[in-house]
Amino acid sequence: MAEIRLIDIKEDILSENQALAGQIRDALRNHRIFLMNLMASPGGGKTSLILQTLRRLKDKFRMAVIEGDIDSQVDAEKVIQEDIPAVQIRTGGFCHLDASMIEMAFKELEMTALDAIIVENIGNLVCPAEFDIGATRNVMILSVPEGMTSPSNTR
Ligand SMILES: Nc1nc2c(ncn2[C@@H]2O[C@H](COP(=O)(O)OP(=O)(O)OP(=O)(O)O)[C@@H](O)[C@H]2O)c(=O)[nH]1
Ligand SMILES: [Mg+2]
Predict the structure, then answer these.
(1) What CA–CA distances, in Å, run from 101 to 119, 122, 131, 138?
(2) Which of 20, 35, 146, 152 is the most exposed place for a label (fewest CB within 10 A)?
(3) What is the pLDDT of residues 20-64, one digit of tens each?
(4) Domain range for residue 119?
(5) Domain-embedded: residue 18
(6) Which of 46, 48, 52 for mutating ligand 1's site (highest number of atoms within 8 Å of CB)?
(7) What pTM, to 2 d.p., does this model score?
């Protein structure tokens, strides 16, 4: 019988990402910056939670937002309306953010002038969870109304 040859790409990608995520966490600790990685499904309420958090905390802490999106920059536009710096990462189809994308975003921010950064990850409940981005805390919104509703599961 023919044998299956397995090339495990995922393992290599993840270990490289993990090493960079560790460096990012060290850099954040040195700068005393808190980084939150916010995840949820599409339309799960990520931007709404970020905007409300900014309104409540921006007078106390120097904040910035990194917005991940497959294509658009509508959420970053909402953030700058709050007078908060925003960096848009346009992944061009990739379904998650990884540590190298966060490292790129840091170059666009004045790191010495920040206390906290919120990252809105791509709206996806699968891919973002696999990739450590060097966050101080990972946060997930579980949205009950989001998702498919059919007569069979509303009974
Ligand atoms: N009823 C209700 N609606 C909410 C709540 N949070 C967000 N919404 C609404 O849900 C919709 C999507 O919210 P967003 O905050 O844009 O969700 P998101 O996760 O950023 O969406 P994407 O970035 O497109 O993945 C908007 O119409 C919000 O007004 C909530 O707590 N309750
Ligand atoms: Mg959003």
Answers:
(1) 11, 12, 11, 16
(2) 152
(3) 999 999 999 999 999 999 999 999 999 999 999 999 999 999 999
(4) 32-142
(5) no
(6) 48
(7) 0.89
